[in-house]
UniProtKB/TrEMBL annotation:
It comes from the Bacteria. NCBIfam families: methyltran_NanM. It comes from Candidatus Schekmanbacteria bacterium RBG_16_38_10. This is Sugar O-methyltransferase. InterPro entries: Methyltran_NanM.
């Protein structure tokens, strides 16, 4: 099936697909993303093979300019050469910083012993990949390096046994899920996100694993307990249906970046749910301070203190090193300049505390 056919199938099995904008208290960032997503869906531009994964409001976080046969096969010679010329003429400094940050991320992954994962998982072989940079005998982009790093952590820290149940809140197009399933093929994967994001995940994961059991939103009532999901199955849970799974205890719950972007009302729904409170492991990557007083990036007052709970034991805590050295040109204090993000990110693994 084509990307468009897979999207049509998902929408047919997703009651309320167009209702996410009616959710209350959504943060400004995701409200804008939703509006743009539904605009593209209406105009039939959202879910073709070249746009379902990297589009106007969300992307693979870019790759440095490079002319390669892989890029030409993916995007066409004209687009590749025009992009290369534009970047070298107009965005040369930005591209230099992007390449430096990408190379730093690669070295961090190698430092953890993840070189084999980089070689085994070139991004150009994954569905819908447009942003491709050939380096170190493989191909990568910025978001893909984040996923490779998180995969390495999940494997090294034994956060998910094969056949285990994993819920990820905010999965985007399912890149990390595809990687984890490759190494834990019997794991039960549940993704919680907005409908249009789940649709992107379904397109991606269906193309990677066409023979897997894909549990659609209109089939959720058939699986009351997540541990009863067939081994190797992939479940798609709309954010508006989170309460269906919230009162359970499973092996692993994760969130990478998006909890720190939510208004406190939504943040509390997740963090105070039994799923986050009682599950065996919780793996989080989020900002130390979501909205520093000098640059209120997100419309929330969440900080790292809100992720620390007395009923859970912290097993690992450190600065999240991927994208740590990215410099972005943006306006601040009435002046446009290259700056790092206003708050670093932490990574934390917690487990159920002994009672």
């Amino acid at each position: 099936m084509s990307a468009e056919e897979l999207a049509d199938y998902f929408m047919q099995h997703s009651p309320g697909f167009h209702g996410d904008l009616d959710l209350l208290e959504i943060d400004d960032k995701h409200t804008n993303i939703l509006r743009e997503a539904y605009r593209e869906i209406k105009n039939k531009k959202a879910f073709n093979q070249k746009s379902f994964r990297s589009w106007k409001s969300q992307s693979d976080l870019n790759a440095p300019a490079q002319i390669s046969f892989r890029a030409i096969r993916s995007q066409g010679a004209t687009k590749v050469f025009l992009r290369y010329a534009y970047i070298k003429l107009c965005r040369r400094i930005e591209d230099k910083f992007l390449l430096s940050a990408l190379l730093d991320d690669i070295e961090v992954i190698k430092l953890l012993g993840g070189k084999d994962l980089l070689i085994e998982n070139p991004v150009h072989l994954t569905p819908g990949a447009k942003e491709i940079y050939n380096v170190c005998g493989t191909s990568v982009n910025s978001r893909w390096l984040r996923y490779i790093y998180l995969l390495k952590r999940i494997l090294d820290l034994n956060l998910l046994a094969d056949g285990g149940v994993w819920v990820d809140v905010g999965s985007y197009y399912g890149g990390l899920q595809g990687l984890v399933r490759k190494y834990h093929p019997e794991s039960r994967i549940i993704m919680v996100d907005f409908h249009h994001q789940l649709c992107r995940s379904f397109i991606y994961l269906s193309q990677l694993f066409p023979d897997a059991k894909h549990i659609m939103p209109d089939q959720l009532s058939e699986y009351i307990k997540l541990k009863d999901i067939p081994k190797g199955a992939i479940m798609y849970v709309p954010a508006s249906e989170y309460e269906r799974i919230a009162d359970q205890t499973i092996d692993l719950v994760t969130n990478f970046v998006s909890l720190g972007e939510m208004r406190r009302e939504f943040f509390n729904i997740y963090m105070n749910s039994p799923l986050f409170r009682r599950s065996q492991k919780v793996f989080l990557v989020n900002r130390f301070v979501s909205a520093p007083y000098f640059e209120k990036t997100y419309d929330t007052d969440v900080s790292v203190l809100d992720y620390i709970a007395s009923h859970r034991k912290i097993e690992y805590f450190d600065v999240f090193p991927i994208h740590q050295f990215v410099l972005i040109k943006r306006n601040l204090f009435g002046r446009k300049s290259f700056r790092n993000t206003s708050s670093n990110y932490f990574e934390m693994v917690t487990s159920k505390a002994d009672m």
